[in-house]
Amino acid sequence: MASLARLRVSRQLPLRGVRAIQTSADTTQLQGTAPGDGQQPFTVKLHPDSFRAYKCDLPDLEVEVNKDQLLTMYRQMQLVRRMEMAADALYKAKLIRGFCHLAIGQEAVSVGLEHGIVPNDRVITAYRCHPFAVLRGGTVAGVIGELLGRQSGMSNGKGGSMHIFTPSFFGGNGIVGAQVPVGAGVAFAQKYLGEKHATFALYGDGASNQGQVFEAYNMAKLWNLPTIFVCENNKYGMGTSAERSSSNTEYFTRGDTIPGLQVNGMDIIASLQAVRYARKWAVEEQKGPLLLEFVTYRYGGHSMSDPGTTYRTREEVQRMRSTQDPIRGLQRYIEEWGLATEQELKLLDKEAKAEVDAAVEEAKASPEPEIKDLWTDIYYKGTEPPSMRGREREEVSVVFHSSGC
C-alpha cells in the first residue's frame, strides 16, 4: 500500500520543465486604456500560464473585448448563478425531485463558450446543463419550470433537470459520456450539409475514461469533423479526485492525434479566447477536431444528494470561493478598468435576482402535465404514427384516441 501511495503522489507532480496551468480568475491585464464607448474594442492580455498546448500552437494572449460584451457576460454569469442557487433552494424545499446537478462556480465556461461561438453552432453536454440551456436560447423560467415538472418547462415538464433542449442545444443528457459520440454525429451532419459551423461536445473529467469518448475521438479525426471536444475538469467527477481515477490527468493530451488545449476555466476572458481559437481551428481553418480542457471548480457536490465534503475539505471550497471565483474576477476587471462602478454592477445583480425570483413564481404557478400529455412529444412533430401502444393494446387504444392525438 505504501508503494501504491507513492505512485499516486508521483502522478500528481508536474513534469519537469513544464509550467502548470494557473486558475486565478483575475490576472488578465489591461493594455493601454479602456474607451468609454460600449462597442469600441480594446485589448487586454492574459496571464502567460492561461493555456497549455498539445500538438498545436498556443492562442494569442492578447484578447480584444469591449465594454458592452464584458457587462453582458457579467450579468449572464450572475443570472445563471442566481438560477442555480434558486434550484438549490427549491430542491431542499422538496419542490424539485430526482436528479439535479448544479454548475455554481463553473460560470466562466458556459458564458465564455457562448460568447465565443455563433447562434448556429451546436452545443451538447451532460447533466450539468442548466446554464447552457438559458444561454442557447432558453429562459430561466423555462429551466425552473422544467425542474419543477411543470407545463411551462422547456420540455413541457416531462424531461426534468437532465433533458432540456433548444434548436442549437442538444441537451442535457443523462448517460455518462453518451453525449460525446452524439456530438460527433451532429458535427458529421454539419460537414455533410456543408455548414460552416462547429459542434462543442462537453463532458466532465468523470466521463473522460468512457470508451465511447475515445471512439468518438477516432471517428471525428478520421473524418476530419468540426467537433470541439470540451472536458470540463472540475477535478472530482462524481466524488473521486482525478488523481485517483485517471492514470493521465492531463485530459487535453488524451486525443492521441487530436491536438489539445488546456485552459484556465476560472477566468472568463481565457475561456472566451480558447473558444474563439477552437472555432477558428475547426470552421475557418478546417483542421478537424480539437480537444479543450477547462480547468474549473464546482462549489457544490456532484449532485444535490452529494454534500461535496467527503472527498475534499470545507476549507478548500471556501478558499476557492474567496480567492478564485470567476464572477468576482470579472467584477474586478470591470471596476479596475473603469467600465462600471460597484454600484452599477450591484444594479445588474439586482436585476438578475429579480428575473430569477419572477421565474420561480411563474414556474410554481404553472400546472403539471396532464395524463393526455403522456402521448405527446414521443415522436418528432409531424411524424407521429396513427396509433401508439403502451402496456396493453386496449388501454393505449382507448387513451390514445380519447386524447384527440
Automatic annotation (TrEMBL):
Its EC number is 1.2.4.1. One of its GO terms (molecular function) is pyruvate dehydrogenase (acetyl-transferring) activity. Residues 75-371 form the Dehydrogenase E1 component domain. Its cofactor is thiamine diphosphate. Keywords: Oxidoreductase, Pyruvate, Thiamine pyrophosphate. Signal peptide: none annotated. It is an enzyme of class 1 (oxidoreductase). The keyword Oxidoreductase applies. It catalyses: N(6)-[(R)-lipoyl]-L-lysyl-[protein] + pyruvate + H(+) = N(6)-[(R)-S(8)-acetyldihydrolipoyl]-L-lysyl-[protein] + CO2. GO terms for biological process: pyruvate decarboxylation to acetyl-CoA. The pyruvate dehydrogenase complex catalyzes the overall conversion of pyruvate to acetyl-CoA and CO(2). This is Pyruvate dehydrogenase E1 component subunit alpha.
